[in-house]
Amino acid sequence: MTTAGFEVITKPTYRDIQGRFTNAEKGIREDSRDIMRTLGRNFVEIARDESPKKSGDYAKGFRFRTFSAGASPGFRFFAAQPLTTWITEGTKPHRIVPKGSGYPLRFFWEKVGRVVHLMSVNHPGTRPNPFLDRTYTRWIPKARIQLRRIATNWSDTIRGKRR
C-alpha cells in the first residue's frame, strides 16, 4: 500500500532570517550615520550659497554636528548668534552707541567714502533675509531621496539582496 505525504521546508531558514535581521539592524545604523553626515554637509553648502555674501566670513562659520538620540540619528546646524537671528528676522531702526565711555564709534562709512568717528549713530534697521528657509526648501528634496535609501537598503538586506 502506498501512503501519500508531503514535506514543508521553509527557505530561507529561520536561522538565515534571524541573521538577515541582525545584519539589517547593523546596516541601518551605519547607513543612518553616513547619510546624516552627507545631509549635514549638503545643508551647510546650500546655506553658504543662500546666505548674505558681503565679505563671505559669515558663511564660513556655518557648521553641523551629527548626533544620535537613542536609535534616531540627526544633525544640528550652527551659525553665529545673535547675527543669524538679526539677518533672518531683520532689525528695527535703533541707536548704536559705543560700549566704553568717551570712545567714539569708528567705521568706514560708504556713503561719505571715508572713516568717521561718531559718538552714536541711528541705524535704519534691516529687512529680514530668510536664507535658512530657502536653504531648507532646496535641501529637503535631496534629503528625502537619501532617507528613502536607508529604508531600501534595510529591505534589501532582509530579502537577502544586499551584502
- What is Rg? 28 Å
In total, how many domains does the architecture comprise?
A: 2
Number of helices: 4
Instruction: Give a quick account of the main beta sheet: strands, pairing sense, barrel closure.
Output: 2 strands, antiparallel
Adjacency order of strands in the biggest sheet: 1-2
Oligomer: single chain
Poorly predicted regions: none
H-E order: HHEEHEEEEH
**Strand tally, please?**
6
Query: Termini distance?
Result: 49 Å
Helix-strand category: alpha+beta
Mean pLDDT: 87
How would you describe the shape? rod-shaped
Strand content: 15-25%
Helix content: 40-55%
Task: Outline the secondary-structure elements.
Elements: H1 14-50, H2 57-60, E1 63-69, E2 72-78, H3 83-89, E3 94-96, E4 105-109, E5 114-118, E6 121-123, H4 131-158
Walkthrough of the structure:
47% of the residues lie in helices and 18% in strands. It is an alpha+beta fold. The protein folds into two domains: 107 residues, no CATH class; 32 residues, no CATH class. A two-stranded antiparallel sheet has the order 1-2. The chain is rod-shaped and about 115 Å long. The relative contact order is 0.16.
In short:
The chain is built from four helices and six strands; from the N terminus they run ααββαββββα.
Give the tags.
two-stranded antiparallel sheet; alpha+beta; 4 helices; single chain; 2 domains
